[in-house]
Amino acid sequence: MAVEKIFKDEASEEKGERARMASFVGAMAIADLVKTTLGPKGMDKILQSTGRGRAVTVTNDGATILKSLHIDNPAAKVLVDISKVQDDEVGDGTTSVVVLAGELLREAEKLVASKIHPMTIISGFRMAAECARNALLQKVVDNGADSEKFKSDLMKIARTTLSSKILSQDKEHFAKLAVDAVMRLKGSTNLESIQIIKKPGGSLKDSFLDEGFILDKKIGIGQPKRIENAKILVANTAMDTDKVKIYGARVRVDSMSRVAEIEGAEKEKMREKVQKIIAHGINCFVNRQLIYNFPEELFADAGILAIEHADFDGIERLALVTGGEIASTFDNPESVKLGHCKLIEEIMIGEDKLIHFSGVEMGQACTIVLRGASHHVLDEAERSLHDALCVLSQTVNDSRVLLGGGWPEMVMAKEVDELARKTPGKKSHAIEAFSRALLAIPTIIADNAGLDSAELIAQLRAEHHKEGCTAGIDVLSGSVGDMAELGISEAFKVKQAVLLSATEAAEMILRVDEIITCAPRRREDRM
Amino acid sequence: MALAFDEFGRPFIILKEQEQKTRLRGLDAHKANISAGKAVARILKTSLGPKGMDKMLSSPDGDVTITNDGATILEQMDVDNQIAKLMVDLSRSQDYEIGDGTTGVVVMAGSFLEQAERLLEHGIHPIRIAEGFEMASRIAVEHLERIAQKFEFGPANLEPLIQTCMTTLSSKIVNRCKRDLAEIAVKAVLAVADLERKDVNLDLIKVEGKVGGKLEDTELIYGIIVDKDMSHPQMPKRIEDAKIAILTCPFEPPKPKTKHKVDIDSVEKFQTLRLQEQKYFDDMVQKCKDVGASLVICQWGFDDEANHLLMHRNLPAVRWVGGVELELIAIATGGRIVPRFQELTPEKLGKAGLVREKSFGTTKDRMLYIEHCANSRAVTIFIRGGNKMIIEETKRSIHDALCVARNLIRNNSIVYGGGSAEISCSVAVEAAADRYPGVEQYAIRAFADALDSIPMALAENSGLQPIETLSAVKSQQIKENNPFYGIDCNDVGTNDMCEQNVFETLIGKQQQILLATQVVKMILKIDDVISPSEY
């Protein structure tokens, strides 16, 4: 008797080898897709959205590329997921993590083909990952105590991160920008207080870091354009019609004159509110919500600069920067903390007028203004800068640093190789495979730069058999170079996250021996 | 479809729209049902044991789940066949009752069905088979009782509990740090356990996950974590010796349930209403302040104005906290949930030693930790992991481990794992079979054979020779009269599960056998399947 169908109509099931092949192929396809973006000479991708307008994004950032893909293969989704997590957690290394996981699976596929059980491969991979991590831990440099050296470490990391992005031409400039911005945070990882404003026009070199705060808003008409020693009230309150909020209240009148009276009362209420706000002794009022014409006029009369509709982030940052509190009631002017700054003025960047707050009390926040030829360039610049900022802020907390340029991979590969030789049993094949997968990363970097990867990797391997070697790939000169001298560094935290998440993902995919796909949910047919 | 005719040759219509239905009867129906049940069992078979593989499930919306947990696999499998649905239910009821062994129960039921099919071919009546199975399952359960061992544990000696949880966790993807997770699970269960009543309320253990970090960062927190942040960005991020007011009323003007209207028809009314509203906000905040609260946790939102007033009076607040979390906070801090501002009193406040906000990674995710609570009976297990799927799978694994620990506290009898209990039962059932005179004898013997399938699957998944290994272990058990020999899945070098510290709970195992037998009995009793044919 034939086996009854047990699934729903469109559900499908793939078993054993087929399932494994499907997931390997899917995962490797994803890895190959982003592979060419790796390294300083990596290429970019153009992404076109399917939405209206067919917006185009040009990017080099692994997480951004993968996020925008529509993927059907479940194993591929696992890789997309790890890249997203890498982005959230450390901000950089989003491409490396996918490529490493892909390489691990490629090696695993060969092992499975030579009849080694996936579980054996997994246990080998685990041992190898642990060993690789320890190898890195032994080699880390921690300059956290020495602020001079630490700053130069940060510069190096920023330069290394930026060199694979669109900003690589001006990496010196942007590395300095990023380091300055992060140093101002004083150890907090809250990147919210670094504001990035993008204005097309000029060249990337014209981008600058502003110590103060720039709000992308216009000053109301008839109000002062420049205020010195500003006292700022940051508020989140309705400045249109202040509704009575008691539930069920409604206006019911029987004649026109009554309507006018109530309207008058409403106006009076607004006026009172404005009076109260003015009574705080301020000369600048920033509101999150809209300010209607009537109150705006009142503010203008009192010579107060009123800024409306600053979005929530803007308000929070402004409150943080100026040291004021976000107020919503105005009955006790004496106890509300006002924000202060030395100077508020309207400035022009390109063709837009912006409001610039300078000489603020708290030095934590700052604004980076990016200039560039087009929106695409600016978007990509922002992503690159974001990566750099993330890495730097993580490094400030965990000041352990490694050399870059394929050096960590070589160190790990060497240790793992050694472990493979010492381990008896079938596991040693898996461990060896792990070391090969690690070597794939410098190989790809070299390949992407158009160098002779086989030759370079062989040279590197030889170099690394000496104790205390600092050799890595110098992509610019196309040869093996001393990474310490070239000043190419990477954050330990990023490398560790890449190693661990890639192993975890590979393990997860290896463990699967059956894929069951449910019938896709039916969408209602649109008429 | 067979039709019945009366003496005039007119067909009887028995079923509504008879022509549109397909119908299977007799042996065909049995076989169809059995093959469906077996198909489900076959899917799960490879997931059994420490070397079992995972399944990747893609939901109708395209979300991917990777899991090893039988109940989860079956739940998400989009099954259409009725008998297969029975198997899904079987696994689910094992999950509800015991929490672990959800894969084993289905595999066991599958092998019972397989044996039943053979007997049916011999021409034995299904009911007799079912009865034989029933008798055999009784023998097996009694035998388990005999070979079970009690072990003592106390707050000072957690080792046996941890070992048992480790057995459960070793088949999951998290087995890399099973020791840590097992310890966490045991400590969590003990923290909320009522050792005198021998009961554990698992609701008091909250399992919260956040993507990022690594599995080793998973921690047990004696307190509550809420995935929320302070309502106003400038409120303090750290409060010591917090007195917590737990409110279920919004910081908004009251909304009477009865329909009502307030008519404004004059300027005076407008003014008074406005004043009232202002006073209302003021009163609310003042009430909280008056009773001495230093943190307000509210189930609802606040108005902007209330929010600022709270901030202004230096009273940090958290809004939109879910009902379940609110209850947990209330239990943990010893506070009362207060539905109205008027009813706030100092006694109703909860107390916590430390409340702090913690941020993660580069995104602005923040979570609120409430620690050092007055009553530490509520705990949280906070899972970190490389990606969403790992976290989900860890949650499921931790749930299994928690259930196992709870079962042990309820009943501290254990049997040994690695298939040893099944082999021992199989031997006992086999020996007992000869004492039954009727046709049931065959069914009982078949039951014994079916029990062997679990160790066989274990051996197969571990890459051993299934038949060879099983016969070796079985003969060893009989020869040395020691029921602790099982399959050496991890290649440790000994078959003695006592030495390997592989335990399972007695009630879990008993339940598996009973549930599987019940479902098989039910399936065997079906002799007619009527279903609407496809059109």
Note down, in words, how this protein is organized.
Chain B: This is T-complex protein 1 subunit epsilon. The complex is a heterodimer of chains A (527) and B (535). Helices cover 48% and strands 18% of the residues of chain A. Chain A has 527 residues and is α+β, with helices and mostly antiparallel strands. In chain A, strands 7, 8, 10, 11, 12, 13 and 14 form a seven-stranded mixed β-sheet that branches. Chain A has a three-stranded antiparallel β-sheet with strand order 4-16-19. A three-stranded mixed β-sheet of chain A has the order 5-15-6. In chain A, helix 1 crosses helix 3 (74-89) and helix 4 (94-113) crosses helix 13. The longest helix of chain A has 23 residues, at 256-278. Chain A is elongated. Chain B has 535 residues and is α+β, with helices and mostly antiparallel strands. In chain B, strands 9, 10, 12, 13, 14, 15 and 16 form a seven-stranded mixed β-sheet that branches. Chain B has a three-stranded antiparallel β-sheet with strand order 4-18-19. A three-stranded mixed β-sheet of chain B has the order 7-17-8, with helices on one face. Chain B is globular. The mean pLDDT of chain B is 83. Chains A and B meet through helix 3, helix 5, strand 9, helix 8 and helix 10 of A and helix 1, strand 2, strand 11, helix 8 and helix 9 of B.
The CATH homology group name of the largest domain in chain A: GroEL-like equatorial domain
Structural class determined from secondary elements of chain B:
alpha+beta
The N- to C-terminal Cα distance of chain B equals: 16 Å
What's the name of the CATH homologous superfamily of the largest domain in chain B? GroEL-like equatorial domain
Number of strands of chain B: 20
Number of helices of chain B: 17
Largest interface: A-B, 88 and 86 residues
| CATH third-tier fold name of the largest domain in chain A | GROEL, domain 1
Organism (chain B): Ziziphus jujuba
Protein name (chain B): T-complex protein 1 subunit epsilon
InterPro entries (chain B): Chap_CCT_epsi (IPR012718), Chaperone_TCP-1 (IPR017998), Chaperonin_TCP-1_CS (IPR002194), Cpn60/GroEL/TCP-1 (IPR002423), GroEL-like_apical_dom_sf (IPR027409), GROEL-like_equatorial_sf (IPR027413), TCP-1-like_intermed_sf (IPR027410), TCP-1_chaperonin (IPR053374)
Family (chain B): Belongs to the TCP-1 chaperonin family.
